[in-house]
Amino acid sequence: MSKILFDNYLFRCSSISKLMTNPRNKKDLLSVGTRTYLGEIFKEELYGKSGVIQSKYLDKGIMAEEEGIEMYGRHITKRCCEEYKKV
Fold this sequence. Notes:
By secondary structure, the protein is mostly helical. It has two domains: about 1-50, no CATH class; about 55-85. Helices cover about 60% and strands about 0% of the residues. It is built from three helices and no strands. It has helices spanning about 15-20, 30-45, 55-85. The chain is elongated and about 65 Å long.
């Protein structure tokens, strides 16, 4: 079994809240939440699998997301212009 090194591991900014928490007991070095999160990362690196869910329905939603946002923006802009003309 090869050795896994975390010397140059890059954490996501969104995971700071999971890493930078204080332990409840002063004698503990890391909080329970931090240990749990680091354990999840270790398992992901060890087995090469992440907790990312992927399905054809999510892929379709991601593909249609930008078009939906643009359509909503056009609708809101049109509605705001109509209300402005009434005043």
